[in-house]
Amino acid sequence: MKILFAIQGTGNGHLSRARDVYPELAKHGEVDVLISGIQADVDVPFPVKYKLYGMSFIFGKKGGVDILQTAQKLKLFKLIKDIRTLPVEKYDLIINDFEAVSAWACKMKKIPCISLSHQCAVLNNNAPQPKETDWMGKTVLKYYAPVTDAYGFHFKAYAENIFTPVIRQEVRDLNPSNEGHYTVYLPAYDDDTIVSNLSKFDGVKWEVFSKHNKEPFTFKNVQIQPIENKAFMRSMEKCAGVLCGAGFEGPAEAMYLGKKVMVIPMLQQYEQQCNAVAAVTMGAHFIKQLNVKYHNDIHKWIALEQPGKIDFPNQIREIVTLIINKYAPSFSKDPQPAMVAVHQA
Fold first, then answer.
1. Which of 146, 222, 295, 328 is the most buried (most CB within 10 A)?
2. What is the pTM of this model?
3. How far apart are alpha carbons 58 and 56 in whole angstroms?
4. Residue 326 burial (10 A CB sphere; 0-12, 13-18, 19+)
């Protein structure tokens, strides 16, 4: 069986999750990987057949998406060409993690496209959402990568076909401890904003992983270093807490390790607003922006005791088998659908 595994390359969560999803897909056939987007900072340990420019949201420096930069970097004619020429018809199964080119190529050619993403879980009516709905943001999330069926990941199994987070094996293999520092990943803020705020917390050591700086430096109690996976893993393994954007994989991994978590959702980013609401139900804390107005909230968070570890089970094999049995039964070694332990909230 030929499988196309299409992955969104904006941010790091999609590619991090793909590290564990790919080996399970490879057990069922020949897998070609497609990655589109220009904002990722992590590599993948498997071959990539299609590396496309795609359609990326550009991180800003003041807490949100840089709309102007996003518009300027959009290559519309290239995007249309890639959608028209991508040979999706050559594949027996297409798995899509919020990737626009393959999704629209399948829609144009009336080929099934199966979502395996966090975004489709966010859109489920049973999933937590903010009181004030951003209709524009919700519409973008819904139509960015249209699919024919959806299997999603979220902090809880809020509905059928929603599963708990994929925790990378390298995170599961860590031995968490508390050496007192705080790990920081806020890609929507520039280093000056982060340093000017976090340096105000005397006696607290911050290890910041920066999307905007390639050279490490230290200012008072704030250490800035470029994003590197192994260094980030070491920092998170030994930290007291994680201060990060309201993505999905990062907070979930910190919860799994039993760390205090505080999230700051990106401005005008509906998915992260939803994630922040859901993260709070899991014991995380959130503030709206990184500025002096919320320093007291950060002080209170720092003073908290360590929470308990949240043991998210590894369900990747069951999910992949479920999809294979439903959409490619003639290729499946197991003709009966796999039983997956999920509970509707």
1. 222
2. 0.87
3. 6
4. middle
